[in-house]
Amino acid sequence: MPGQVAPLTDERELLLAYIAQQRDGVRFAAFGLTDEQARLTPSASSLSIGGLVKHVAAMERSWVDTVLQRQAPPVEQAEDGYEAGFRLGPDETLAGALAELDAVARETEEVIGGIDDLGQAVPVPKGVPWFPQDVEAWSVRWVLLHLVEEVGRHAGHADIVRESIDGATMYELLAAGEGWPATDWLKPWEPAS
Predict the structure, then answer these.
(1) pLDDT per position as a tens digit, 46-96
(2) Is 35 exposed, middle or buried (0-12, 13-18, 19+ CB in 10 A)?
(3) Which pLDDT does position 78 carry in this prediction?
(4) Cα(134)–Cα(118) distance, rounded to whole angstroms?
(5) Rounded distance, CA 71 to CA 82, Å?
(6) Residues in CB range of 190: below 8 A, 6 or more apart
(7) CA–CA gap between residue 190 and residue 167 (Å, rounded)
(8) Where are the domains of the chain?
(9) How far apart are CA 166 and CA 107, in angstroms?
(10) CA nearest 130: which of 66, 87, 76?
């Protein structure tokens, strides 16, 4: 995906394109990393690139589950289980986490493509402390806009973590990932020799 979303006129396509762009921000932050580097937590937080990839995939899938009113698989609710969702475990790979992110992206596009009305009600789950108790339903459109915001937030986290690992920044990673030619003002990222 180029540096900017295409000027689409279809609302559904535009919302999905913005989600894809933010998802690509997370993906490009992982570009060229080894599994070991993807597990690093070099900033003041406990976030890693691999953990962010895992979390974004799981979070997006949970929103699709909410839209479909599909029972999600049980998730470990203990603190350790929650935190494990933000870590690339020793038996997990960055390639596997990225493949899961791709699978989730395909499912999101398929599900949203099959919904006739973006104004369709999405019941707000009850008993979840971070969801409003005084709102009965969001719309599919609201969920898509929320995904733009939440994936974008995590893409920003990934940018900071990646820069802390090896100094690589978003545009040079994007240029490398998409094969842009070098210019006087932008050199695609290359692994240190």
Answers:
(1) 999 999 999 999 999 999 999 999 886 665 454 556 777 888 999 999 999
(2) middle
(3) 47
(4) 22
(5) 18
(6) 176
(7) 11
(8) 11-178
(9) 33
(10) 66
CA distance 124 to 12: 21
> 57, 53, 3, 47: which is closest to 165 by C-alpha?
47
Candidates 60, 116, 55; CA nearest to 81 is 55
Q: How far apart are CA 48 and CA 139, in angstroms?
A: 32
**Does domain 11-178 sit in CATH 1.20.120.450?**
yes
How crowded is residue 109: how many other Cβ atoms within 10 Å of its Cβ? 15
C-alpha span between 41 and 23 (Å, rounded) = 20
Once rounded to an integer, what is the mean pLDDT over residues 87-111?
96
Q: What is the total residue count of the chain?
A: 193
What are the helix and strand counts (H, E) for the chain? 7, 2
Q: Tell me the C-alpha distance between 36 and 108, whole Å.
A: 29
- Residue 136: burial class (beta carbons within 10 Å; 0-12, 13-18, 19+): exposed
